[in-house]
Design goal:
Elements: H1 11-47, E1 51-54, E2 60-64, E3 70-75, H2 77-82, H3 85-115, H4 121-125, H5 144-152
Antiparallel strand pairs: 1-2, 2-3
Length: 156
């Protein structure tokens, strides 16, 4: 008659599994802290973004914020002599688009530098966050211990 002990893992295996789980948890906490720091750095950098554009004659200048919102518009009196009201409006719109594109590029650069090259800015802005990289997930045939070792060594 069996007491079922042959089906139970040895006590050291359970202790080892608990220790591995604690190590994974500690790594995840560290990773979350790192993500929080990077998110704060990105937020600060994004808030400081300014896109600027000026006419070739330097008599019309536009400054936009990180989301393309108009922050400053400078029109030198020379522009009123050089351009009709319609042309001036078109110049302002064209410069606003150029400044907005510049601000967008600054945001993309900050994203790559702070959040990593494989972070898809457009997907996140469109509300389609990336799935986790396949390399970070355990693979078929890989033991939990092997995966934990790779995670601890930063090889995921």
């Amino acid at each position: 008659m069996s007491d079922g002990s042959e089906n139970r893992p040895p006590a050291f295996a359970t202790e080892q599994t608990v220790a591995q789980a604690k190590a994974v948890y500690a790594n995840l906490l560290d990773e979350v802290d790192g993500l929080k720091q990077r998110a704060e750095e990105f937020r600060e950098r994004a808030a400081a973004v300014r896109g600027e554009a000026a006419s070739a004659e330097q008599d019309v200048r536009v400054v936009v914020g990180p989301q393309g919102e108009l922050r400053a518009l400078e029109i030198d009196p020379r522009a009123y002599r050089r351009l009709s009201p319609t042309e001036l409006a078109e110049e302002i719109l064209a410069l606003s688009r150029k400044a907005h594109a510049g601000a967008g590029e600054q945001i993309r650069t900050a994203t790559r530098e702070v959040l990593g090259r494989d972070f898809d800015v457009e997907a996140h802005l469109a509300g389609r966050p990336q799935p986790p990289r396949a390399s970070r997930l355990p693979t078929a045939g890989q033991s939990m211990a092997e995966w934990l070792d790779r995670l601890k060594e930063g090889r995921l």
